[in-house]
Design goal:
Length: 585
């Protein structure tokens, strides 16, 4: 053949016998075409190969194992006799492999493949066996409502995408070594992802299309120890992750899972019965993190019907936040059904959960239904404070916490369990116990809860148990609660007991200017201690309650018993405001 030529192969008219065509590089200087029943053809030097099929089932194999083949290959399968139909198989290893599924014809499906720059165009095919690539991209057809399943293949080491609606050709794919991207069409697609090959260990990226009804369902999918993020879903209006384990992955944000809300409609993401563990977010900025999950504007439910576990994830960037979950701008996060957020850590804030949603009306974060938020850590560094061991709320978002447990969390400075900014945090029916805040300054602490200028409502509808929390910094204050220039309202039946602080306010420390800052109504404030830190500025005042500044206090009913202070005010210590006590023992 002459260099630059086009070679067109016309297969003989259909005789009921399948034709097999095999194209390979035999050596550095020879490309060979082998066809069933035909002498080998030397195709060295041609620029384009066209294979014109017949009415039988034709099988084209392109073997790149020995090196590059023809720059441009076109395979027109023709009509088919049923069964598997015309097929294309690619052999060899590639860096990037792109499959573009385009249109459907009378004889099958059409599209093209790009293999590290080499193009294969096809018409009238059914199945494709793709090449072995580090990165594989599947572009589903536009103009159709695709219904597809990504699943394990019968071939060990392979997965496959199956068309459930006759819009593109089924494709078998060797496990990618780096990433698999599925780009949906533009008519409202459904993609089901079920259990993949046991050896699958690539990042999974799914991008919805322009429609407002895309749905992605993952069932029992394991994404473990991939080279990057475990799962990234964008532009999909519905995401369901049911079962499976996402573990050992890493990215700047959302080491385990990143969900980007759709631009064409609100996104609802439900994570049920899944385990998200041991993932890392490396982003250095305060708005980066989410070692386990980064929710970028979606409505997300962790544990809708079945509990999920988010554990031992890390946001280890310089100002990384949200070791377990980062709820980003515009997001809404619900944790319920017994879900567990445990053992996560972050440098700046929110060892378990960071809320930066900046919601104004709806709750940014709601913790419900026997949730567990325990043993998370806001570690702190020279440049990062380390606030909110369990949960940290940045901005003004309302937060609701009900019917669960916040225990064993720790913060380098403030809010061992919970840290609220200027929004409203409502806590009902929850146990807050064994948390630690280690800030050394007098305005740091809040072993259980730290309220930084917001509104903190505790026990409004169901009693809260706040016990055995500690502010153990040299001048740490507010073992149970530190209300810093905010409004605190604690209601009937709530128990604040066994908490301790070094400087002041073993049970509660409250600060602020003139006006009503704190209400205790029917509260048991018992057996707390202001220990005294043994350093200047840490006297140990107000074993039960310590008031700094001119704020007013109203205490009605309840008890103040068994508290102790190293220096002054074993039960109560008042500053420059008015403390009113009615009917209290």
């Amino acid at each position: 053949m002459l260099a630059g030529d086009t070679l067109t192969l016309f297969l003989s008219p259909g005789d009921g016998v399948a034709d097999d065509i095999h194209v390979s590089r035999v050596d550095a200087s020879t490309i060979r075409i082998e066809i069933t029943g035909v002498s080998p053809i030397d195709a060295t030097g041609i620029d384009q190969l066209i294979v014109e099929g017949n009415s039988d089932n034709n099988h084209l194999t392109l073997d790149y194992s020995g090196g590059v083949l023809v720059p441009s290959i076109q395979f027109n399968g023709g009509m088919q006799t049923g069964g598997e139909g015309d097929s294309l198989t690619v052999l060899g290893t590639f860096s990037d492999q792109i499959l573009n599924y385009t249109t459907t014809g009378a004889g099958g499906n059409n599209g093209d493949l790009n293999l590290d720059g080499a193009t294969i165009t096809y018409t009238g095919l059914e199945p494709i066996n793709a090449g072995n690539a580090a990165n594989t991209i599947l572009n589903l057809p536009v103009g159709f409502a695709n219904d597809a399943t990504l699943q394990n293949s019968v071939n060990a080491g392979d997965i496959e995408i199956v068309d459930n609606g006759a819009t593109f050709e089924d494709t078998v794919i060797p496990n990618p070594t780096n990433s698999l991207t599925v780009n949906l069409g533009d008519m409202g697609d459904l993609l089901n992802v079920t259990t993949l090959d046991p050896g699958y260990a690539a990042s999974l990226i799914i991008n919805g299309g322009a429609a407002s009804t895309d749905q992605v369902d993952l069932t029992n999918v394991d994404l473990v120890n991939t080279p990057g993020r475990g799962l990234w879903v964008t532009e999909s209006e519905t995401l369901n992750v049911t079962g499976g384990t996402i573990s050992g992955n890493s990215a700047a944000i959302g080491g385990g899972i990143l969900v980007d809300s759709s631009s064409t409609g609100p996104t609802t993401a439900i994570i049920d019965g899944a385990t998200i563990s041991g993932n890392t977010a490396t982003g250095a900025a305060a708005n980066q993190g989410g070692g386990g999950i980064f929710n970028n504007g979606a409505g997300m439910i962790v544990g809708n019907v079945v509990a999920s576990t988010v554990s031992n994830n890390v946001a280890n960037g310089a100002l990384g936040s949200g070791g377990g979950i980062f709820n980003g701008p515009g997001g809404q996060l619900f944790v319920s059904s017994g879900s567990i957020i445990s053992g996560n850590s972050a440098n700046r804030a929110g060892g378990g959960i960071e809320d930066a949603s900046n919601q104004t009306v709806i709750n940014g974060v709601s913790l419900l239904g026997s949730f567990t938020l325990d043993n998370n850590v806001a570690t702190g560094t020279a440049s990062a404070p380390g606030n909110g061991g369990g949960l940290h709320v940045t901005g003004t978002s309302p937060t609701f916490i009900g019917a669960g447990s916040v225990s064993g969390n720790s913060a380098a400075e403030e809010g061992g369990g919970l840290w609220n900014n200027t929004g409203t945090m409502t806590i009902d029916g929850t146990t807050i116990s064994g948390n630690t805040a280690s800030g050394a300054s007098a305005d740091q602490g809040g072993g259980g809860v730290f309220n930084s200028g917001g509104t903190l409502l505790i026990g409004s509808t169901a009693p809260v148990d706040i016990r055995d929390n500690v502010a153990d910094g040299a001048a740490g204050s507010g073992g149970g609660i530190f209300n810093f220039a905010g409004f605190l309202d604690v209601r009937s039946g709530t128990t604040i007991t066994g908490n301790a602080a070094n400087r002041a306010g073993g049970g509660i420390e409250t600060t602020g200017g003139p006006g009503l800052t704190t209400i205790l109504d029917g509260v048991s404030l018992d057996n707390n201690g202001a220990l005294g830190g043994g350093v200047a500025g840490s006297p140990g005042n107000g074993g039960g309650l310590h008031v700094s500044g001119a704020g007013d206090i109203l205490i009605t009913g309840g008890t103040v018993n068994g508290n102790s202070a190293a220096l002054e005010g074993g039960g109560l210590w008042n500053g420059g405001g008015i403390m009113t006590i009615n009917g209290t023992t």
